[in-house]
Specification:
Layout: E1 4-12, H1 18-28, E2 32-44, E3 47-53, H2 56-67, E4 74-77, H3 83-95, E5 101-103, H4 121-128, E6 134-135, H5 139-146, H6 154-165, E7 171-174, E8 186-190, E9 193-197, H7 210-223, H8 228-244
Helix pairs in contact: 1-7, 2-3, 3-4, 5-6, 7-8
Amino acid sequence: MTPIAVTIAGSDSGGGAGIQADLKTFSALGVYGASVIAALTAQNTKGVTGIHDVPPEFVTAQIDAVFSDLKVGAVKLGMLSNAAVIAVVADGLARHRQSNVVLDPVMVATSGDRLLKPDAVDNLRRLLMPKALVVTPNLPEAAALLDAPVATDEATMRAQGERLLALGAKAVLMKGGHAGGSESVDLLVDESGVTRLPGPRFATRNTHGTGCTLSSAIAAGLAKGMPLADAVQAAKSYITSAIAASDRLAIGSGHGPVHHFYRWW
């Protein structure tokens, strides 16, 4: 059986993040990718100049079309910019009985542009987090979900991960890319404890789409039947290599993308 993963997220017209990064990641990792586009962005390596929300009823139509036909092994949720779209996505996941759900709570682009309306945060907490197998916030996103200061050390990352677990997710991957130090340390927090996932930190500006790529790599692993811990470890290895190779690309004049196809190009 061909492994299939679906991304429900926003389109990045510059190709570095969002739906485009997710589909590249699925392909690079040997998984067939399908998509449900929840928003369109006018975006490049320098920033976001416009957002057009897809009507909720059309998001529903895409979900029903994809899930009624394809045998989906995992779902990645990315940019869902408003409360109404979040509600129909939650309904669709329940209707189609999806349990391998990776929730990347996308709130702000690498450029600093806000991608999630403030009134949608509550819906994300209440409706999507309890449906997630794993939630993958970066440190500012975790702080926003908890109305707390941004974590600056691993002890605080762990404590915030445990608080996010209490909101209903089965596991939380606290991403340490925004922290300092020579290592980029992520923490996988679940009911059994904490797994530390260190990786080297690279001096590059080509970090656009790192969060999208990591979360879709986890979904790819789940679609192939990996246990969550193994899928997270494999995804961490993939994103580390994709960042390490990112300077081999010359894309745009701002924050360039990671190198999804570093193994082949």
